[in-house]
Write a structure and sequence with these properties.
71 residues, mainly alpha, two-stranded antiparallel ribbon, 11% strand
């Protein structure tokens, strides 16, 4: 039985994932969080659109990945 996590908890999971991996995909995030594909994509996009967040988007169309911001 899955428990609902908060957006902040999911963000922390994504950041932990990016400590060991060069990027995270929407599918990776779905597996990590248990969210549906659409919600996962929206949430990652929201993180990337926030300049203070620490995650940014790279690539175009279906080839988008999310990476840890440098600096």
């Amino acid at each position: 039985r899955k428990t609902e996590s908060t957006e902040e908890e999911r963000f922390q999971k994504a950041m932990q994932y990016l400590e060991n991996q060069p990027f995270i995909t929407v599918s990776d995030y779905v597996g990590l969080t248990g969210l549906g594909q659409t919600k996962a994509k929206m949430e990652l996009r929201q993180f990337a659109d926030n300049p203070d967040c620490g995650i940014t988007r790279k690539g175009y169309g279906s080839h988008v990945v999310y990476i840890k911001k440098q600096g």
